[in-house]
């Protein structure tokens, strides 16, 4: 691999955001990776029924005189992710408080730009959103770019798992990277991470995420027999050695939701570790695949408050509004992901409740796990660099 290509991969790893849950590397497709939809938010209204209700008091235009006339600036991804975010969160908030919400599409530069804004103490965004709580938000906190959150000011955060309620970021919805298999290639579905990494008994081309390493490395260790309670700190040498065992079978490193759908539909790989909303989208389009949540890595896309904001009170009000159960249901109906709180499930249809219920159970109960916030906040940069180098080898 030429030196300049490796350098480019290293630079990308510094800015790539994993939880995933659910960010994307390419700026042009940035909305895809945080729960993007091929259809527009408007198109999806037809399938979400009456879900686009707002909280009861949101019907009062400009209802809070303390904020009326103010402007809040939010750093976001873009694309159809932004369309869903606008419809479910931004517009109802503007109507309720009589404010203006401006969105700056920052794509995969959101980490670097937020740090630069604070270091230079220049005016910019007030809230950063759309990145993983366990890496994006915590890493920004370690760098001093976002504030430690005061949860007494976010009443609607009650009921969120501690794994998505971090010092510097609070989850906005749950995505998970689940193992998915083409039914023609796998008449017998492998079990968990061990089955995915067992290319001898379950041969076939495979696909995994092409940026950062959170979740992927944990799954490699689970496949190698490491007990979940002994996972952290990650034994990186052991994890990468396990990844080496499937490298010859890896035909696709995906970096966005649209690439997941394309990989499944075009059968570029017949087994993959994918964001579940995009697997469901491929299935809705006719793909004959089976998805299993056993050993799935869970991520929470998140909200963080930028350190040098002058709109802290308004930022807290916005985050709290977005975590209301009905707002959460509206957003998740459009994105296809799971609400950050189990209490929101009651607002979704029964089939969706049944599918997503395992995401609110512990690893021992449901077979899914949260990437550990403390570890990835401290090690995100260095481990992501190593992951990119491994891909480039």
Any idea of the CATH class of the largest domain?
Alpha Beta
> Tell me about the biggest sheet?
10 strands, mixed
Percentage of residues in DSSP E strands = 15-25%
Low-pLDDT runs: 1-21, 23-52, 56-61
Helical content, roughly? Answer: 40-55%
Structurally, the number of domains stands at 2
Give the strand tally.
10
What's the alpha carbon Rg, rounded to whole Å? 20 Å
What features would you highlight for this structure?
single chain; 393 residues; D-Maltodextrin-Binding Protein, domain 2; 2 domains; ten-stranded mixed beta sheet; 16 helices; 40% helix; globular; disordered N terminus
How would you sum up this structure, described in words?
With 393 residues, the protein is of the alpha/beta class. The protein has 2 domains: 3-174 and 300-389, D-Maltodextrin-Binding Protein, domain 2 (3-Layer(aba) Sandwich); 177-298, D-Maltodextrin-Binding Protein, domain 2. Helix content is 40%, strand content 17%. Strands 1, 2, 3, 4, 5, 6, 7, 8, 9 and 10 form a 10-stranded mixed sheet that branches. Strand 1, helix 4 and strand 2 form a beta-alpha-beta unit. Helix 3 crosses helix 13 (325-335), helix 4 runs antiparallel to helix 13 and helix 6 packs across helix 16 (373-392). The longest helix has 20 residues, at 373-392.
